[in-house]
């Protein structure tokens, strides 16, 4: 990760990644696809960041996004939608359901940041399995992996002619994968599905653009997580106890290490056939972080 300013990075003719370092909490990547209309893959977390992104899109294409694909319902990927009030919003059906439910964290969990006048919009077009956009032009395939993965409603966006893949948060590059809303086992299957596409360029939800080599580090972390959860469950440990006793090894170099606690909450609950306690998971991440707010550069 670097401290560079956000930037548009061309990945194919008429296709860009908008990369926002440092890729941490609430600092995500977006995609721009300039076909018959301009399609944005996600938006971002704050008014300031979204306005900077929209200005970059206008400079590159001469237009604002007329269509936005939400790769999932987390606020860093959706909050800016209020700043494109006329754009069509496309997402998996469960994203539409999730965005209509309030989600509030205790105010001490994150470092404060200025969100400004930016908030999500409910999708105007929902799908269940997949949808193809501009089939006669710059073909854009939006697919659900068919399983809960990073979240229940993940989409990845595949450009088959350019072999460019926008993964949303199904891939983190340099950051700790976050599974509190999802399923590590399902996420592994989603990674296999995306790898089978054999993309040339892979744009992750957070971190630098790469190629298919970005899949295996995420898969390795998820396998590590599942093994750690199985061990903790057998030993009768709580997720926080297990996280504190766990040697992260090679994954200790990733940012947002506190996510291991939320990830163990989800994975241990999944082993028991239950849902994770979200409020307890966030509080335990705060505890794991030394009772300090989680770092956020939004």
Descriptive account of the structure:
The longest helix has 21 residues, at 215-235. The chain starts with 6 loop residues before the first strand and ends in a 10-residue tail after the last helix. The chain is globular and about 55 Å long. The chain contains eight helices and twelve strands. It has helices at 47-61, 75-78, 93-99, 184-195, 215-235, 239-245, 259-271, 278-288, and strands at 7-12, 15-19, 30-34, 38-41, 67-69, 88-92, 125-127, 130-133, 140-143, 156-159, 164-172, 201-206. Helix content is 30%, strand content 19%. The chain is of the alpha/beta class and 298 residues long. The strands form two sheets. A seven-stranded mixed β-sheet has the order 1-2-3-4-5-6-7. A five-stranded mixed β-sheet has the order 8-9-10-11-12, with helices on one face.
Mean of residue pLDDT?
96
The shape, in one word, is globular
Strand content: 15-25%
Q: Structural class, judged by helices and strands?
A: alpha/beta
Count of separate DSSP helical elements = 8
The gyration radius over C-alpha positions equals: 18 Å
Terminal CA distance: 15 Å
| Oligomeric state of this protein | single chain
Poorly predicted tracts of residues = none
Helicity level: 25-40%
Biggest pleated sheet: 7 strands, mixed
């Amino acid at each position: 990760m670097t401290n560079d300013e956000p930037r548009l990075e061309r990945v194919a003719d008429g296709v860009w990644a908008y990369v926002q370092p440092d890729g941490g909490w609430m600092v995500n990547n977006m995609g721009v696809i300039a076909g018959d209309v301009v399609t944005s893959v996600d938006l971002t977390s704050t008014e300031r960041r979204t306005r900077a992104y929209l200005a970059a899109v206008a400079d590159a294409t001469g237009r604002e996004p007329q269509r936005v694909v939400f790769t999932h319902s987390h606020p860093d990927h959706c909050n800016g939608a209020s700043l494109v009030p006329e754009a069509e919003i496309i997402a998996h059906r469960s994203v539409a359901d999730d965005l209509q439910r309030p989600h509030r964290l205790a105010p001490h969990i994150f470092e404060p940041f200025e969100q400004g006048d930016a908030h999500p919009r409910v999708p105007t077009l929902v799908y269940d399995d997949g949808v193809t956009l501009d089939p006669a032009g710059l073909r854009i395939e939006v697919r659900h992996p068919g399983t809960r993965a990073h979240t229940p409603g993940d989409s990845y966006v595949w450009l088959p002619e350019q072999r460019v893949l926008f993964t949303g948060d199904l891939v983190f590059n340099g950051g700790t994968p976050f599974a509190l809303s999802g399923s590590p086992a399902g996420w592994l299957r989603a990674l296999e599905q995306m790898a089978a596409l054999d993309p040339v360029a892979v744009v992750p939800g957070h971190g630098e653009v790469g190629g298919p080599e970005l899949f295996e580090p995420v898969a390795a972390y998820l396998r590590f997580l599942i093994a750690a959860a199985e061990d903790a469950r057998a030993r009768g440990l709580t997720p926080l106890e297990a996280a504190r006793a766990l040697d992260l090894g090679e994954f200790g170099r990733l940012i947002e290490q506190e996510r291991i606690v939320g990830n163990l909450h989800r994975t241990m609950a999944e082993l028991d056939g239950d849902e994770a306690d979200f409020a307890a998971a966030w509080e335990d991440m705060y505890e794991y972080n030394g009772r300090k707010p989680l770092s956020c550069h939004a």
